[in-house]
Amino acid sequence: MFATRSPANTLLEPPIGIAPRFPILKSFLKSYTLGWENWESKSIPLLQRYGAEGAGFEFSKHFDTPICYSFNHAGTDLERVSMALRWYALQAALPSNSNTNKKGVTKKRAAKTPVRDMEATVAEYRKQAGSKSYLGPMSYACCYLDADNTAEHLKKSDEELSGMDWEIARALAVDGYAAQEIAHAILACSPYLSARKNQKEAAYATETAEKVITDPVALQRIADRAAAQSSKESAQALIGANWRPAWHRAVAYCYWACQMRTLADMGIFYYTVGTVGNCLVLGWHDWALSLAKHAKESIGRDFFAAAQDKQRTQFFLLRLIDDWQGNPEHKYPPSAYDDPLLTALLEQWRTPDPASIAPLLLAACDRHTNHAKHNSEKTDPDFPVRAWWYDPFEILSVLYLRKLEGLENPVLEHPLLATPIGMLPAIAPKYSDELLEAVITQACKERPELAEGMASAQSR
């Protein structure tokens, strides 16, 4: 029998409730995009080179100044790879993606392929010109015919608007629009084109469109997009229905990324503590404890320290681990103690009666959905990035530790727990591979304090 959300504890009345805007799986998967499209073509090769050569090789330039690869760059690239792998694993694991290879779905997606014609090109140009990216150039257009404009003002206005034409035309070329369609859009939409180009607008539009089609930047973006799509398709085919190895790899890469970035004072608190929970429920206790220790040491010097002070879920997990380990409690910021629900859950997580802990866990699931939203001027939620919205690591950590203590867990019915990611996983060996071991070996040479974690990793 499933537990219901009708608690006797007055602390939970009225219940928090599932957030009205918490996305169902179909909407979530549509809006949760692969953030690091170039992770396989750029981050992986850089990590391979770092593992083989160590730090110091030139990999980029800032204007004419060479940029050399470092420990910090390696930590960032590990994080990018880990979050890409997390995306693939979640796409494969979450149920609404299970029928993506069915014929009907394929036809439906093919029908949604954007139309490429004159009308669509004009609409896309207008859409881009109306975005915030072009507020500057469009402000010149608004005053183009002012009586007090000087020749210098008009020249500057034309330069700004021509620059906008070029950037939008290049974006259209990357999206697959033809030169003739792009020229038509410039003629139809570019502000005051005839006045700006002295009745030579047709030649200007044609020349811009033809140049942008062969522009090296546009061609490279097209190549990068094709490579990313090919990589995405091959990775999804490789993972298939067996998403767990990809998930284990993602958690392991994120563990080491968080260790490295925390040592460099570049950590992101909610990534770090979320990874603590992911490691814990896989049975990777030494990793979870090591990363929790470093997370506590990072408090106040985290990359986003101002937001960190308000992330109560993350403080809850660290305090839960303190309690499990029987350690004297670390001194946390005042906000770590002011959430009555999380305080009650921390006090009662060892209760033998599963029925009495169930309402607290369900309310904590509701709370998770209310904190699954982006940052705004008014809120600093605990899960500001979609990658963590359907990952109830704090709930699973309670259930895992109860199981470890020999306590019976309640059967909980909640959308957050109704996915493979929302279920307690089987204990797994710590993940490693040749690339990861090479990177960590080099990183330990630069930062010997990382070696403690390395020794734990090799004991898997």
Question: Summarize this, please?
Answer:
The chain is mostly helical and 460 residues long.
Molecular structure report:
The protein folds into two domains: 10-94 and 241-458, no CATH class; 118-218, Methyltransferase, Methionine Synthase (B12-binding Domains), Chain A, domain 1, CATH 1.10.1240. The protein is mostly helical. Helix content is 60%, strand content 2%. The chain has a two-stranded antiparallel ribbon with strand order 1-2. Helix 2 crosses helix 3 (71-93), helix 2 (39-53) packs across helix 20 and helix 13 (269-281) runs antiparallel to helix 14 (285-298).
What would the keywords be for this entry?
two-stranded antiparallel ribbon, mainly alpha, Methyltransferase, Methionine Synthase (B12-binding Domains), Chain A, domain 1, elongated, disordered N terminus, disordered C terminus, 460 residues
Q: How many helices does DSSP assign?
A: 21
Number of domains: 2
Counting helices, strands and paired strands, the structural category is mainly alpha
The average pLDDT value, as a whole number, equals 84
Q: Which strand-content bin applies to the residues?
A: under 5%
Low-pLDDT stretches: 1-14, 97-111, 456-460
Instruction: Tell me about the largest β-sheet.
Output: 2 strands, antiparallel
N- to C-terminal separation? 38 Å
Rg from C-alpha positions? 26 Å
C-alpha geometry: elongated
For the biggest β-sheet, the strand order reads: 1-2
Secondary-structure element series: HHEEHHHHHHHHHHHHHHHHHHH
Residues in helix, %:
55-70%
Instruction: Count the beta strands.
Output: 2
